[in-house]
Amino acid sequence: MAKKKPKQPSNTIALNKKVKHDYFIEERFEAGLELQGWEVKSCRASKVQLTDSYVIFKDNQAWLLGSHIQPLPEASTHFVTDPERTRRLLLHRNEIEKLMAAVDQKGYTCVATAIYWKKHLVKCEVCLAKGKAKHDKRDTEKERDWNRQKQRLLRKDF
């Protein structure tokens, strides 16, 4: 009898599912996150939320706004924590310039879609996205429903 492989834990800490509904994702970038010690401990416990988070550019640096990292009660007792603080994203200069140029164009925005572990480092997936109009959202939903229905019909035939 073959041995089963132990289940690998997921590397994903937090996902921003709302982005796929509200935006067309054009390009993805991987950025490091500058975190404090208590924030890393909270990431290990998956106490992170990315809803309504976005990226701004100031002084040729990228900053993550709107992300919420909930402090653990046992990890952060001796100093004041700010769960909504602005966190610096670590990107290469040419990536920052590319993102800044695209954001200056009409309709483009830079949003965070996921935070995950890569080896022992916390990484953030940053996407260059273009906003969807209301009718685009409806079309996407109709297409998703049709694909689900096709799968059901194919399963019935077999």
From TrEMBL:
<dbReference type="Pfam" id="PF01668">
    <property type="entry name" value="SmpB"/>
</dbReference>
<dbReference type="InterPro" id="IPR023620">
    <property type="entry name" value="SmpB"/>
</dbReference>
<comment type="function">
    <text>Required for rescue of stalled ribosomes mediated by trans-translation. Binds to transfer-messenger RNA (tmRNA), required for stable association of tmRNA with ribosomes. tmRNA and SmpB together mimic tRNA shape, replacing the anticodon stem-loop with SmpB. tmRNA is encoded by the ssrA gene; the 2 termini fold to resemble tRNA(Ala) and it encodes a 'tag peptide', a short internal open reading frame. During trans-translation Ala-aminoacylated tmRNA acts like a tRNA, entering the A-site of stalled ribosomes, displacing the stalled mRNA.</text>
</comment>
<dbReference type="InterPro" id="IPR000037">
    <property type="entry name" value="SsrA-bd_prot"/>
</dbReference>
<keyword id="KW-0694">RNA-binding</keyword>
<comment type="similarity">
    <text>Belongs to the SmpB family.</text>
</comment>
<keyword id="KW-0963">Cytoplasm</keyword>
<feature type="region of interest" description="Disordered">
    <location>
        <begin position="138"/>
        <end position="158"/>
    </location>
</feature>
<protein>
    <recommendedName>
        <fullName>SsrA-binding protein</fullName>
    </recommendedName>
</protein>
